[in-house]
# Entry
Amino acid sequence: MTGNSTMTLNRTHDAARKSFVATANEQDCDFPLQNLPLGVFQGERSGHARCGIRIGDQILDLPVADEAGLLGRLPEAARQALRAPSLMDFVALGSRVASELRAVVFDLLVSDQPEPSKVGGCLVAAGDVEMLLPLQPRNFTDFLTSRFHKLRLSANGAIDPNFRSLPLAYHSRASSVRVSGTEVRRPHVQRADKDGVDFGPSREVDFELELGAFIGSGNPLGQPIPVGRAAEQVFGYCLLNDWSIRDIQRWESLPLGPFLAKSLMTSISPWIVSREALLPFRTSVLPKPADEAPLLPYLVSSEDQSSGSIDLRFEVWLRSARERSVGGKGTRITITNFKHMSWTFAQMIAHHASNGCNLLSGDLLGSGTISGPDADSRACMAEITERGEVPVSLGSGEERRWLEDGDEVTFTARASKEGFASIGFGECSGVVAPAVPWPLA
Amino acid sequence: MTGNSTMTLNRTHDAARKSFVATANEQDCDFPLQNLPLGVFQGERSGHARCGIRIGDQILDLPVADEAGLLGRLPEAARQALRAPSLMDFVALGSRVASELRAVVFDLLVSDQPEPSKVGGCLVAAGDVEMLLPLQPRNFTDFLTSRFHKLRLSANGAIDPNFRSLPLAYHSRASSVRVSGTEVRRPHVQRADKDGVDFGPSREVDFELELGAFIGSGNPLGQPIPVGRAAEQVFGYCLLNDWSIRDIQRWESLPLGPFLAKSLMTSISPWIVSREALLPFRTSVLPKPADEAPLLPYLVSSEDQSSGSIDLRFEVWLRSARERSVGGKGTRITITNFKHMSWTFAQMIAHHASNGCNLLSGDLLGSGTISGPDADSRACMAEITERGEVPVSLGSGEERRWLEDGDEVTFTARASKEGFASIGFGECSGVVAPAVPWPLA
# Structure
């Protein structure tokens, strides 16, 4: 394991520093000099898939920068990993090496750097390339850590006892994780109602707003991760849409949990925002899963309790086919914050590995739906429309109980704090496509 | 997709043919000429991991056989795949190519082949090598398809309605799949009883006897697999021990299903028995999941209904540390048969992909616990001991309610039928190791 538990604020967090890439310095830019997220892109000029770092409206092409001799301060293993067509090899090096890369690239892109034209030759316009999946995770585990989400969707209106003492989770489907922009096809599903059981295109397609975390170096089978060293296992974060099919979820989930309700597809944003970039926005965990009872020691470290959560604001936008056809911007249907979650990623990781389960480099963890206490902060349609009972109105005058074909769902997130540059995630979006014809050819 | 829905009996099923490897012709051998399972082995002489085919007490070293010019009848892609240190590349070629390889190797190993000494030079003694995981599956899905298992462990003594209309399943953990012989460490788990919630070494370590199936070529995301073409997606089978931790399973499973109860480790046997080798043992599906109601059309094909199950007999042996120390053979605690399962692998695959979920080459499916109607055919400790209430007696005079440290669990399976050579699987075994010290270093 790569140790990095003492990651602290440093010059890469200094809001006074600007980039020579002018767009990075604009007030509402997601990608200032203090962010520097990693991704994988492919463009006509660049040819095959390659690793890059986002700055303003530009991408630093990392293999090209290395060829130009700009990454020489990095260990050879890191430079080699960055020449791969996926971030998997680099993520496996852990968050300490990611921090080294971030420092090197900060110095390359800062406004007073001596050779801006040399670095500028390694930049490509983000608008000219296609973003790919940063890596194909080998395992995807999805948690349920918002007590507000749990309460609103609970059958009996109460929090189950196990939610108070552990971060609930299930293994989800790794093979169908796709990058933002991929359309999600309405699935045929089996469902039951008073008239019996049938099979057809789902009538209850939903989204779930989540924060994803990528595992860095991982742990060997049989060797749990102490909670005090679990945070350092987070390589970085992404936006995650855990598309959810409510009609089959209701029917299939007892006793083995959600299966086809989730495996159709999961969307993630293309940029991995590092743990380091979000350090200024750490906050204490609120609300506790159980105020009345102490947590078991294997889930408690003092550092995590005081700063294991993140003050990170999310929005969800819904845009119908009609709105898209006239260039409308759609309707904001959710404003919420990660600080409403009851469990931290350190606790999720420590619990996940507590039985000796091995987490692999690049494994993806989903936080669970980021719902908060207010009506505005409900983060899936099942909550917003009270399971389809109360339609939500769009700006176009249309109404929605569930997602319809042609609807586009877009997530954004931004961490902001007085005295620091704001850190954004870009977008995670997807359009619902019509079901395939059935029976199959 | 590689089409092979019309796989039929051929000369490789002819019981009259014998091998020049004498041990393959013995009555009780798992690996006659008509079996020819694939695996990956490593030995002092052979060096790195390599693909092989089992015959009697020998292994045909496939890269060596290819170098000797013995595999020239195969397509170049197949020969190249067999030079890899894992079967992943070969499995991706699908079951039609596996059938070609089987025919070629049958002719190499048959007793009247013209150059037995040349082929003999490519054999290594199975006893001299270590068997490795045939491939590391990228996804592992575990089903629940025995109504007898479901009934015995049901809270209310009844079959849930959804079991009658779909093969129940959950995503399980792919990273912790290990080969037979790997010890399984007793995990620390969270559990609850009348005194509250605590965390410590599990008191309820269990096994589950299952049949595993490896996916061959797979399907693209968004393209379901018709049930009539689902059987051909099975590349081959293995024994599978779905180690299960009942105390945390009871506590964690609502509402998201089993998680840490299963992810600690899953053991599989090293030899992949091809679908073709088991063709003579196909049988109709009994008992139906629901006699009273027809199945939905997406789960029904006439061929699958008449021959989608397998007459395959299983045994489970339990051997305590005391028995092992004196060379005892242990106690047979289960005799059961795959024909007791209510759903076929074709149905499991068609259901799995019905929402468009993409199955990848080498993905592992578990059948669920293979419990039958009789007391002898209960296929996990929770059933055998009625959840720890009624201890089972071992031949040594010891008793067990759950597995104890040092206990070894071994599965075997054999398909037998008048007029055909018996097909065996070898063994899938594992010893329970003591929990790690806690708190962690």
